Amino acid sequence: MLSIPFIPDQITVHLGRPDEYAENVTIDFPSYIKNLASSEIYPTWPESSLRANIYAIVTYALNRIYTEWYRSRGYSFDITSSTAFDQKFILERDIYENISVIVDELFNDYVRKQGQIQPYFTAFCNGTTTTCDGLSQWGTVDLANEGYTPYQILQYYYGNDIDIVKDAEVQVNAPSYPGYVLGESSSGTDVKTLQIELNRISTAYPLIPKIPEVNGIFDSATAAAVQKFNEIFNLPPTSTVNEATWYKIAYIFTSVKRLAELNSEGITIDDLPKQFENELKIGDQNQNVRSLQYYLSVISAYYIRVSPVSITGYFGEQTENSVKSFQTLFGLPSTGIVDEQTWNEIYRAYAGIVESEPFETEDVVPLYPGTILREGANNEYVKLLQEYLTFINKTYSDIPAVNNTGYFGPLTKAAVIAFQKRSGLAQNGYVGAATWNAIAELYSDLKFGAQKQQFQFPGYTIK
Amino acid sequence: MDKNLSNDPRDIVRKYNEEMLRLYRENKQKDISQTETKETTEPEKNEEMSIEDKYPEPVLPSYIAPAVSSSSLPVSMQDSKGWLSAKVAAADNTIPVNDALVLITDSQKNLKAILTTNEDGITRTVALAAPPKALSESPETQTKPFYNYNMNVYKQGYYEVENIDISVFPDTVSIQPVNMVPLPFAEGYRTITFDQPEPEV
């Protein structure tokens, strides 16, 4: 059991009954809910009915995750797509726009019994061919037509002693919604976060205009970017940021960054082996395993049916599952052992991806040098550090700029402490792995975000 | 014009073919007259025109089938409209796929629309026939309250994607997300060079 219910970044769905041999797919939580809602109910139903059903769908999924229902029984997924056990999920189906808009609003709200913490087990069925001790989908249509609100509909089926918990914590690698709509008159760190995230996203989606000044002021450039974002992602096309837009931006930002981090990781691994060297299987721990995991990570970002894997260098159960999922997809015997044929197929799939989306090799920040940088040090990495801090100072003036002399003096130490304070790290003035990575990440966000692609609207009018 | 209201699919396909041929001929005609003018005004220029310049691809408008109307039935039983668009991207919605070709056909394999994606991977939204709205408002109906359509998406360098039985409801916009996957290398290995820039220190 976990402590406080939260909304996950991604969810892993088993495409069959629990004990049936089937693939697992990992997708982001809101997209999963949109798929479910479009598979379980009709978009033409009245609004109250749609909302009540979506609350039930979200809560059901959160219950499975919170109680670790499948994970605790040794399965490597969170939920199944089988209606006999869970909810109907149809891979890569169409999504109804009106349902999409409601899900973007409600995906982080759930139902619980008063006095309990966990998301309630909101069972439901269609109410015609099957009946159950829970919500009747067709029944909600009648109730909605009689004027019931979504909350009243839920009470009708689950009892009067229920609460709807709003705005649960969302586990994306981005700050939480501030709690109020951001618009023309807004300013502050939340607006700054928005500007950085939108600029980063616009490297992938060039029709979103760049915001030239990341200054925390919601100016017309910011409004234009928000408007375009809302249009592209099927949200109400306003130029303000409500909760739905805030989290949509956060989820897309997380995906874009995840891919970018993978790309930069690849640059720093030396001698990526193309040739098969020796068989790899569970229990192995070496550089070849690391490379294997790197290839599988890139592949799983593009192939939904290949499960993701962490790059640790150790061939454990997660790696074995990932290899098996790859083998199944490519018609190889799913042994979980990487023999020559499997290795070649993996490399070919990876090479095909690289060819289609060439990695950007410019402006990649080097990895942590491996030794702590502290006052008194004098080397190239200190010079880089000073350069990054100075660049960051342009957006965050509380972090002082420093000359890039290469010498780690008291001014550099003060800048490091200011950064650590802002990031919630221990304020010791040393630059270890954690501090280096945090500085590199922020520098990369600001620098990457500022770069325009060809033909991309620069964010200001050329007269 | 009465012809446009014909809902015989063969008429639609025939009209489409005729229109394509007409445009192609028109383009070729234009080009021939241009070439002729060039030769009389600049007899000295001996420029070799490439095949592509000589016979340019005709610029075709995107095709959208005329809406089918079942006007002989009472209003409550007439078809209504729904809408469909595609959102095409790779790597789980992270990298939009520009200039992908999207074909929409109905359950009888009739071509309903030809679209292309923009730089954000999105096509425009097309109107398609959908059943009368009354059908989705009660469970006691034998007929499904939606029509099925199919979508094929092509882009060079990626696996082709086919989505079958996309449901289109009346008065509802359906968005079909399409995940494009790059094709693996066809032959063996190839050296991939990561150009390491000179470190700037």
Structure description:
The complex is a heterodimer of chains A (463) and B (201). Chain A is built from 14 helices and 8 strands. Chain A has helices spanning 29-40, 47-66, 97-106, 137-145, 150-158, 189-201, 220-232, 243-268, 287-302, 317-329, 340-356, 380-393, 410-423, 433-450; strands at 10-14, 24-28, 79-80, 95-96, 110-113, 124-125, 135-136, 162-165. In chain A, the strands form 3 sheets. Chain A has a 3-stranded mixed sheet. Chain A has a two-stranded antiparallel sheet with strand order 5-8. Chain A is globular. Mean pLDDT of chain A is 87; it is low at 459-463. Helices cover 18% and strands 28% of the residues of chain B. Chain B has helices spanning 9-41, 51-54; strands spanning 63-64, 80-90, 95-96, 101-106, 111-116, 126-130, 147-154, 161-168, 173-180. In chain B, β7 and β8 form a beta hairpin. Residues 1-5, 35-46 and 187-201 of chain B have low confidence and may be disordered. At the A-B interface, β4, α3, α8, α11 and α12 of A face β3, β8 and β9 of B. β4 of chain A pairs antiparallel with β9 of chain B, so a sheet runs across the interface.
For this entry, give a set of tags.
heterodimer, A: 463 residues, mainly alpha, three-stranded mixed beta sheet, two-stranded antiparallel sheet, globular, B: 201 residues, 2 helices, 9 strands, 18% helix
In what range is the share of β-strand residues of chain A?
5-15%
* Rg of chain A, alpha carbons: 25 Å
Rough outline of chain B: flat
End-to-end separation of chain B: 73 Å
Biggest chain contact: A-B, 56 and 48 residues
How is the largest sheet of chain A built, in terms of strand order?
A: 2-1-3
Helix count, DSSP H or I runs of 4 or more residues of chain B: 2
Mean of all residue-level pLDDT scores of chain A? 87
Helix coverage percent of chain B: 10-25%
First-last Cα distance of chain A: 61 Å
Structural class of chain A: mainly alpha
How are helices and strands ordered from N to C of chain A?
A: EEHHEEHEEEHHEHHHHHHHHH
Helical residue percent band of chain A = 40-55%
Q: Regarding quaternary structure, how should these chains be classified?
A: heterodimer
Rounded radius of gyration of chain B (Å): 24 Å
Secondary structure: number of strands of chain A: 8
Strand order of the largest sheet of chain B: 1-5-4-7-8
| Average of pLDDT of chain B | 75
